[in-house]
C-alpha cells in the first residue's frame, strides 16, 4: 500500500507557510522580542491556501489582537489583587466576544473571537508580574502582529493563489446545477430524497460563495473589485431556489387536475430549451412575450386550474428574468466587475446585506462554557499553586472559542488534544535530542523545515487540517525557541501537561454545557423557521421577500450537513424545507396584497394570516382542515370581487360593501388570490383541489 502524494498546490502552501514561519522567527530574534516562538505559532494560525483569505484573516486578526491587548492592559493592573474578580472579568470578556462572534457569522466574526481570547493569552501569564503588563502586552502584540504580517506577505508575494478563479468556478458549478434542476422541473422529472438533497445543497453552496466573495475584496488580483457584484449575483441565485421549487409544485398540481394544456407544455419546452442553451440574453424578450401571450388574467370566480396556471406563468416570468440576470452577472464578475453596462432584467427588491441566521441560545451556551472552563482552570491553578496553571486557563479559553460554531465541539476539541500530545512528543525530541547540537541560524532552519513542512501539508488537506494546525501552533509554542538554548526538561513537561489539561477541561465542560448533536441542531433550525413563519404571518407591514428568502435559505444551507448526518429513517429527512420556504414567500405576498385591498377583504386576509400564525406556533404537523377551509373561503370571496384596473393605492378601507368592491385593484386581487393559492399548496399539498363557490357567497360570508 502506497501513501498518496500530496498535489503540488499542497506542497506550495506548505513551503510558503514554512518560509513565513522561519521569516517570522528570524525577524523576532533580530528584533530581540521576548517570545519569538509566538510569531512562528501565529503564522500557522493565520495561513490560508488563498491569498485573499490570508489577507482577510490577517486584517481581522491584527484588529482583534489590538482590542484584546487593550482589554488585558485595562483589567490586569486594576484587578490583580483580587484573583477571583480578575478571573471573572477575563472570562466575561472572552465569553462576550465569543457571543458576538457566533452571532456575526461573517469573516468579521474572527475579529471578535481574537479580541476575546487574546486578552486571556496576555492577561493570565501577566498576573505574576502585573507591573510589567504594558510592556508584556506590547511585546505580545508585536510578536503576534509580526507573525500575521509574515504570513500575509509571503502568501501575497510568492506565487499568490487568487480567490477569483475559485469564486468563478464555484459560480459556474452552481449555475450548472441550477440549470440541471431547471431542466428536471420543466420536463416533469421525478423527485426523490436524493434529488431533494442535491437541490438543498445549492443553498449551502451559495453561502460558501458568499464567504469567498468576502475574501475576494482582499485579493491581489484585478477581480478584487468584483466582490460587490458577487453579492448581487448571490441574491439572484438564492431567489432562483424558491422560484424553481414553486414552479415544480405548480406543474405537478396542474398535471393532477389535467390543467397542463398544450400551449403550456409548448411554453415549458421553449423555456427548457432556452435554459439548456445557457439562457442567451438575445432570446429573453421573445420568451417573455410568449409568457405574456399565455396570460389570460383571472376571471370572476376563477377555478383551481386557472389559479395554478396564473401562478405558473408568474414563476416562469421570474425564472427567465433571474436566469438572464445570473448569466449577465456571471460574465461581469469574470471580467473583473466595474460599472455594469446593461440593465438587469429582474426588478425585484434585494437587501443590501442578506440577513443570516442567529442562534442566541447556542451562543449563550457557548459563552457559558468559556466562563466555566476558564474558572475551573484558574481555580485549579490557585488551589495547587501550579506554576503553569496559566497555560491551562489560556488553552481552555482558546479551544472553547475555536470550535464553538459546531453542534458538538467535544470530538474536535478531543482530537486537538490528541494531536497536541503528539506535538508535545515531537517538540520534546527536537528540543532535547536535536537542538542542543544546533549552533547557527542556517542549521536551525534546516532542522525546523521538515516538521514545519509536514504541518503545512496536513493543513492543506481539509481532512487533516485540524491536526496540522494543532501540530503547527502547539508544537512551535512548546519548542519555545529563544536566542539561546535554555530548555529544562521539568519545565517542558509541566508546560505540556498544562496545555493538554486545559484542552481536556474545555472538552469536559463543553460536553456538559454545549454539545447538542447534529439532529438536535437541525430541529433547532427548523423550529427557528417555524417561529419566523409565524412572525411573518402576524406582522401586517410590507415585507422584504428577498431578505426573508435569504434568511430561510441560509438556514437550509446550515441544515444540509445535518440532514446528511441523520439516519435513513429519521423524521428529519421527510421535512420539506423548500415547502416552508414557499409558504414564507406567499406570506410576504399576502402582507403586501393587504395594502391594495378594501377593509373587509383585508380583514378576511388577516383571519387567514392569524390561522397560519397559530399553525406555526404549534408543533409540526399537517395543516388542520379549518385553516384550509379559511383559505378556501378567502379565495371565494376575493375571487368573486370585480377588479377596477391597476393598483393605485387610493382605495378606501371603510368596509362599506359596494364601495369596497368597486375599488379592488387588479394587482391587489391577483396578488391575494395567487398568494392564497400558493399558501394552500405549501401548507397542504395533498388537499383536494379548491372549488370556487357560486357567485353571491360574499354577502353570506
UniProtKB/TrEMBL annotation:
Record keywords, A-Z: Cell membrane, Membrane, Transmembrane, Transmembrane helix, Transport
Signal peptide segment: none
Protein's membrane topology: Multi-pass membrane protein
Keyword presence, Cytoplasm: no
Superkingdom field: Bacteria
Transmembrane segments: 12-31, 60-79, 85-103, 110-134, 146-168, 363-383, 412-435, 441-460
Chief localisation class: membrane
Subcellular location: Cell membrane
Pfam families per record: FUSC
Keyword Endoplasmic reticulum recorded: no
Disordered as annotated region, ranges: 640-671, 682-701
Annotated InterPro entries: PHBA_efflux_AaeB/fusaric-R
PANTHER family the record matches: MULTIDRUG RESISTANCE PROTEIN MDTO (PTHR30509:SF9), P-HYDROXYBENZOIC ACID EFFLUX PUMP SUBUNIT-RELATED (PTHR30509)
Protein name: p-hydroxybenzoic acid efflux pump subunit AaeB
Natural source organism: Methylobacterium isbiliense
Top-level taxonomy: Bacteria, Pseudomonadati, Pseudomonadota, Alphaproteobacteria, Hyphomicrobiales
Amino acid at each position: 500500500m502506497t501513501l498518496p502524494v500530496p498535489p503540488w498546490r499542497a506542497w506550495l502552501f506548505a513551503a510558503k507557510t514554512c518560509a513565513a514561519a522561519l521569516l517570522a522567527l528570524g525577524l523576532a530574534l533580530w528584533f530581540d522580542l521576548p517570545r519569538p516562538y509566538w510569531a512562528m505559532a501565529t503564522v500557522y494560525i493565520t495561513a490560508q491556501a488563498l491569498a485573499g483569505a490570508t489577507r482577510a484573516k490577517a486584517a481581522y486578526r491584527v484588529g482583534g489582537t489590538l482590542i484584546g491587548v487593550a482589554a488585558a492592559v485595562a483589567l490586569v493592573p486594576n484587578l490583580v489583587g483580587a484573583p477571583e474578580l480578575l478571573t471573572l472579568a477575563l472570562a466575561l470578556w472572552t465569553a462576550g466576544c465569543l457571543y458576538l462572534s457566533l452571532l456575526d457569522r461573517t469573516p468579521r466574526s474572527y475579529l471578535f473571537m481574537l479580541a476575546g481570547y487574546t486578552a486571556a493569552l496576555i492577561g493570565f501569564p501577566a498576573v505574576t508580574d502585573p507591573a510589567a503588563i504594558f510592556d508584556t502586552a506590547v511585546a505580545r502584540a508585536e510578536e503576534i502582529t509580526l507573525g500575521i504580517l509574515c504570513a500575509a506577505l509571503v502568501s501575497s508575494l510568492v506565487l499568490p493563489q487568487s480567490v477569483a478563479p475559485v469564486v468563478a468556478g464555484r459560480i459556474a458549478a452552481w449555475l450548472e446545477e441550477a440549470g440541471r434542476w431547471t431542466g428536471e422541473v420543466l420536463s416533469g422529472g421525478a423527485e426523490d430524497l436524493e434529488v431533494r438533497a442535491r437541490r438543498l445543497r445549492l443553498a449551502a453552496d451559495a453561502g460558501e460563495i458568499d464567504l469567498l466573495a468576502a475574501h475576494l475584496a482582499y485579493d491581489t488580483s484585478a477581480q478584487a473589485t468584483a466582490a460587490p457584484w458577487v453579492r448581487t449575483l448571490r441574491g439572484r441565485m438564492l431567489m432562483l431556489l424558491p422560484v424553481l421549487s414553486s414552479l415544480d409544485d405548480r406543474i405537478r398540481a396542474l398535471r393532477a387536475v389535467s390543467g397542463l394544456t398544450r400551449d403550456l407544455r409548448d411554453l415549458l419546452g421553449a423555456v427548457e430549451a432556452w435554459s439548456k442553451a445557457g439562457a442567451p440574453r438575445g432570446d429573453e424578450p421573445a420568451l417573455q412575450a410568449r409568457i405574456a401571450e399565455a396570460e389570460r388574467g383571472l376571471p370572476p370566480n376563477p377555478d383551481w386550474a386557472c389559479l395554478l396556471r396564473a401562478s405558473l406563468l408568474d414563476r416562469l416570468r421570474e425564472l427567465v428574468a433571474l436566469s438572464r440576470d445570473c448569466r449577465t452577472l456571471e460574465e461581469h464578475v469574470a471580467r473583473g466587475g466595474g460599472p455594469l453596462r446593461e440593465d438587469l432584467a429582474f426588478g425585484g427588491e434585494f437587501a443590501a446585506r442578506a440577513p443570516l441566521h442567529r442562534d442566541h441560545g447556542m451562543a449563550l451556551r457557548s459563552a457559558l462554557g468559556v466562563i466555566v472552563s476558564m474558572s475551573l482552570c484558574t481555580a485549579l491553578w490557585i488551589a495547587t499553586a501550579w506554576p503553569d496553571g496559566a497555560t491551562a486557563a489560556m488553552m481552555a479559553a482558546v479551544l472553547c472559542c475555536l470550535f464553538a460554531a459546531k453542534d458538538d465541539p467535544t470530538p474536535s476539541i478531543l482530537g486537538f488534544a490528541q494531536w497536541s500530545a503528539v506535538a508535545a512528543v515531537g517538540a520534546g525530541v527536537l528540543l532535547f535530542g536535536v537542538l542542543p547540537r544546533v549552533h547557527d541560524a542556517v542549521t536551525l532552519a534546516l532542522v525546523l523545515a521538515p516538521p514545519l513542512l509536514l504541518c503545512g501539508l496536513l493543513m492543506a488537506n481539509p481532512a487533516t487540517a485540524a491536526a496540522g494546525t494543532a501540530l503547527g501552533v502547539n508544537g512551535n509554542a512548546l519548542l519555545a525557541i529563544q536566542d539561546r538554548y535554555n530548555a529544562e526538561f521539568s519545565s517542558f513537561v509541566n508546560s505540556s501537561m498544562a496545555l493538554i489539561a486545559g484542552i481536556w477541561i474545555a472538552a469536559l465542560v463543553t460536553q456538559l454545557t454545549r454539545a447538542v448533536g447534529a439532529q438536535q441542531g437541525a430541529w433547532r433550525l427548523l423550529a427557528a423557521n417555524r417561529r419566523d413563519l409565524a412572525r411573518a404571518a402576524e406582522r401586517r407591514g410590507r415585507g422584504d421577500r428577498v431578505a426573508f428568502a435569504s434568511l430561510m435559505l441560509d438556514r437550509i444551507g446550515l441544515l444540509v450537513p445535518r440532514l446528511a448526518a441523520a439516519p435513513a429513517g429519521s423524521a428529519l429527512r421527510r421535512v420539506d424545507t423548500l415547502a416552508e420556504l414557499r409558504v414564507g414567500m406567499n406570506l410576504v405576498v399576502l402582507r403586501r396584497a393587504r395594502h391594495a385591498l378594501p377593509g373587509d377583504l383585508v380583514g378576511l386576509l388577516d383571519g387567514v394570516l392569524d390561522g397560519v400564525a397559530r399553525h406555526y406556533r404549534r408543533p409540526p404537523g399537517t395543516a388542520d382542515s379549518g385553516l384550509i377551509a379559511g383559505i378556501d373561503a378567502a379565495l371565494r370571496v376575493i375571487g368573486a370581487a370585480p377588479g377596477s384596473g391597476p393598483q393605485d393605492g387610493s382605495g378606501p378601507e371603510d368596509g362599506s360593501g359596494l364601495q369596497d368592491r368597486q375599488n379592488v385593484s387588479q394587482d391587489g386581487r391577483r396578488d391575494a388570490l395567487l398568494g392564497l393559492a400558493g399558501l394552500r399548496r405549501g401548507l397542504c399539498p395533498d388537499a383536494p383541489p379548491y372549488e370556487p363557490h357560486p357567485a353571491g357567497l360574499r354577502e353570506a360570508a
